[in-house]
Amino acid sequence: MLSGHVLKLMNEQIAKEFYSGWLYLQMAAYFESRNLKGFAHWLRIQSQEEACHGMIFYNHICERGAEIKLGAGAAPPSSYKSALDVFEKGLKHEYTVTASVNNIMDAAVKAKDFASQSMLKWFVDEQVEEEANFDEIRSKLELLGDKNGEGLLMFDKELSARVFALPAPLATAAP
Ligand code: MG
After folding, report:
1. Distance 77 CA to ligand 1 centre (A)
2. CA of 50 to the centre of ligand 1 (A)
3. Into which CATH architecture does domain 4-163 fall?
4. How far, in Å, CA of 47 to CA of 28, rounded?
5. Looking at residue 36, what DSSP letter applies?
6. How far apart are CA 49 and CA 19, in angstroms?
7. pLDDT digit string (tens) for 124-134?
8. Among candidates 117, 128, 52, 70, which has minimal Cα distance to 94?
9. For 74-86, what is each residue's pLDDT tens digit?
10. Mean per-residue pLDDT for 105-132?
11. Ligand 1 centroid – CA 74 distance (Å)
């Protein structure tokens, strides 16, 4: 049975993952307004992924026979200075998510909750990838500069190729 501090943190993590989804959807709108559809597309897919992350925690709590408690959501910031600003803030946000996942893992280790540790291992690995993805885009934007129209358009085209893939824990789980 999932209980105590680990359960509390996992319920809070559902809200954090859905907040990430809101944040990236708001960031996508920044690019929509600049007609950079590839960047917007990449962030829309990222937003979808975040909702899936929230559902992985949701499913885990249900499967362990514990109670779901959804909290209130906050509004994400809606104004950004540049493409670089968006991805700098996205990377910073992912650092906070990593810290949060690590904190839950720490609680699961202390509680000797091995099932949660196994489930959280996927998130620990996922966060390495999330940070790397945001950092790669951030560093390329830093190289380009926000005034390099041709470079931004080429990068926009590259990002438009992203394809949504259902995260593995949802692909294999029962609905
Ligand atoms: Mg996430």
Report:
1. 18
2. 5
3. Up-down Bundle (1.20)
4. 9
5. -
6. 12
7. 999 999 999 99
8. 128
9. 999 999 999 999 9
10. 97
11. 16
Cβ atoms of 164 and 138 within 8 Å: the answer is no
Spell out the domain ranges in the chain. 4-163
Residue 66 dihedral angles phi and psi, to the nearest 5°: -105, 175
Beta strands in 14-111, from DSSP E residues, in sequence order: none
**How far is the C-alpha of 62 from the C-alpha of 119, rounded, in Å?**
13
Q: pTM for the whole thing?
A: 0.95
Distance between Cα 116 and ligand 1 center (Å): 17
Q: CA 26 to CA 63: how far, in whole Å?
A: 32
Q: Are 63 and 175 in contact (CB under 8 A)?
A: no
> How far, in Å, is the centroid of ligand 1 from the Cα of 147?
31
- Looking at the chain, how many residues does it have? 175
Q: How many CA atoms lie within 13 A of 77 on its CB side?
A: 8
